Amino acid sequence: MKRIFTLILLLTVFSAVYAGGPKNQYVRIKTSYGICIIRLYNETPKHRDNFIKLAKSHFYDGTLFHRVIQDFMIQGGDPDSKGAKPGVELGNGGLKYKVDAEFRDSIFHKRGVLAAARDDNPEKASSSSQFYIVEGKRYTDSTLDKVEKLPRYAGMNYKIPASQREMYKTVGGTPQLDRLYTAYGEVVTGLDMVDRITAVRKDPRNRPLQDIPMTVELLSKRECKQLDKILGLQ
Question: For residue 44, which phi and psi values (nearest 5 degrees)?
Fold first, then answer.
């Protein structure tokens, strides 16, 4: 009887572990220039949950990457971009709310980061829907020193941590956006899509001359668990 009880207990524990959900949510962004998969950070739950809600409702499907700048980023998620005529200025659209800023010292604008666009509101709250993915560039210690002295950091005693400096020097990114815009995810595969998009021809407002619509979908629990395992995030 004792052996049977032990076996049942082990099976129960095994089933609970096996049936457990993934640790992270991943999303897939598809464009005519490729596909990328993004892990949403659990450390920024308001932004994570907002993006999940919009992706689940297919809000992003058909919106454009309407602002692209080489060595910087690609920006999308403006609902006004759906069916927008060529040459129309985009980037002012959104839903009737903002998302509270969620700055984290451990999260920074390295190459491949997903972050929220915003207007100049004093709380630095994020747009309800617009986001960007960092392409970035590599920096040197001297250029990083200059970033620390930018007027936007006045009074903040801002210093880039050594580990982040190394990442900006080797991998690249956009350090001038740290602590000013909320980063809430990162590309885990398909970053070449971003490189292809930044290389397209653009108008004076950095809108691609040929529209680049996207579709955004949530990966299934099974796919998310597989990615957690591959990335060592179980």
Answer: -125, 70
Residue of 191, 141, 132, 195 whose CA lies nearest to 164: 141
Tell me the pLDDT band of 76, cut-offs 50, 70 and 90. Answer: very high
pLDDT, average across residues 43-61: 98
Count other Cβ atoms within 10 Å, centred on residue 24.
20
C-alpha closest to that of 182 among 225, 132, 122? 132
Helices (H) and strands (E) in the chain, counts: 6, 10
SS3 state at 167: helix
Question: pTM surpassing 0.70?
Answer: yes
User: How many angstroms separate the CA atoms of 234 and 229, rounded?
Assistant: 6
Q: Which helix (H) or strand (E) holds 39?
A: strand 34-40
Hey, what CATH class is 22-135+174-230 in? mainly beta
Q: Where are the domains of the chain?
A: 22-135+174-230
In sequence order, the β-bridge partners of residue 69 are 73
Mean of per-residue pLDDT scores for the chain: 92
75 membership: H or E segment, kind and range: strand 73-76
- Residue 12: pLDDT band (50, 70, 90) is very low
